Amino acid sequence: MRILVTGGAGFIGSHLIDYLMAQGHRVIAVDNFLSGKKANIARHFHNPNFKFIKHDISLPLNAKLGPLDQIYNLACPASPLQYQVNPLKTWQTNVFGTGLMLELARKNSARLLQASTSEVYGDPKEHPQKESYFGNVNPLGDRSCYDEGKRAAETLCYIYRAKYKTDVKIARIFNTYGPRMIFSDGRALPNFIKQALTNEPLTIFGSGRQTRSLMYIDDLILGLVKLMNRPNFFGPVNLGNPNQEINILALAKKTIKLCHSKSQLKFQALPEDDPIKRRPAIALAKKTLGWSPGVSLEQGLKATIKDFKARLNNPAAK
Ligand code: NAD
Ligand code: UDP
């Protein structure tokens, strides 16, 4: 198949491209390197089945793409630190960018998978979060550019499906981690691993009692591909690991232990609208996709720490 991956140079996008290339597909990656890196996809540059286009998806894409079978729309910074640098661009990427990608899917009769997020549930009043939950999102806060942008993108998917019968799928992705997350990403795990490996204090926001459910990248990639290839199913469907809910303080301590680090903890203010609890209900993914995550937190953390160690010891990667 001919597959377009937006956000292809990012953390999830580059792992997805590795998977799709290994399956023998022809892949076109689009990215503006806002939070992604060339190094993540450099291994494919000499492969004739791979093409890269540097482009901001919130603007019209005029390049000749040829016919497309599938579009994975992943472009958007995912870390609160990164998506708040330019909130207007974050919102435009989600709304204008998703609109333009849906139009491309419609014109090509291609299938589009939209990378949505657990953030559409905001600071949830329902725990665990089922797909039927409408969420508790503040439209007027620092996280709103991302949360409301992703909610509007879901609405656009709904409209294209209803009005044009575009074959769209929505994945609500919960916190995912793994190798290749950038050191300056700002999310809890990359911060903790980098801090632990350099014996710096681990920064805990608030009391550290807030929870997240952490999914390893390999589990997510299988879920995304299964969803994309599942006919007659729009979703939205949660993709996350309900078995790995952990509070942030415990996560920091676990990271220190696995890194054999001498780091201490440093407590800082909790950012505005930071969700207190998060755990996916994944019955729908199990039933419709036959998917559930299998990598334990211990296994996933060890693999991620190994990758961070290797990059920290390599001046070029640093
Ligand atoms: P990431 O920041 O590593 O990757 C995002 C990629 O999109 C980067 O390469 C960035 O340069 C690119 N990008 C950003 N804006 C762009 C634009 N306007 N035009 C073109 N490219 C642009 O983040 P990630 O963790 O790989 O997340 C990928 C997608 O998955 C995002 O849409 C994110 O919202 C979603 N998601 C991720 C998680 C997670 O835990 N990682 C959770 C929920 C949802
Ligand atoms: N967090 C933290 N220290 C950090 C980075 C994040 O305590 O250095 C907290 C953050 O406030 C949140 C949780 O860890 O409560 C997860 O944050 P992350 O940015 O990884 O994901 P998100 O909040 O988007 O789920």
Keywords:
7-stranded parallel beta sheet, binds nicotinamide-adenine-dinucleotide, binds uridine-5'-diphosphate, Rossmann fold, alpha/beta, 318 residues, single chain
Structure description:
By secondary structure, this protein is α/β, with parallel strands linked by helices. It has a domain at 2-177 and 215-242 and 277-294: Rossmann fold. The protein contains 9 helices and 13 strands. Strands 3-2-1-4-5-6-11 form a 7-stranded parallel sheet, sandwiched between helices. Strands 7-10 form a two-stranded parallel sheet. Helix 1 (11-22) packs across helix 6 and helix 5 (188-197) packs parallel to helix 7. The protein is globular, with a radius of gyration of 19 Å. The mean pLDDT is 96. Uridine-5'-diphosphate (UDP) binds at residues 79-80, 175, 187-188, 191, 203-205, 210, 212, 248, 271, 274.
Summarize the structure.
The protein is α/β, with parallel strands linked by helices and 318 residues long. The protein contains nine helices and 13 strands.
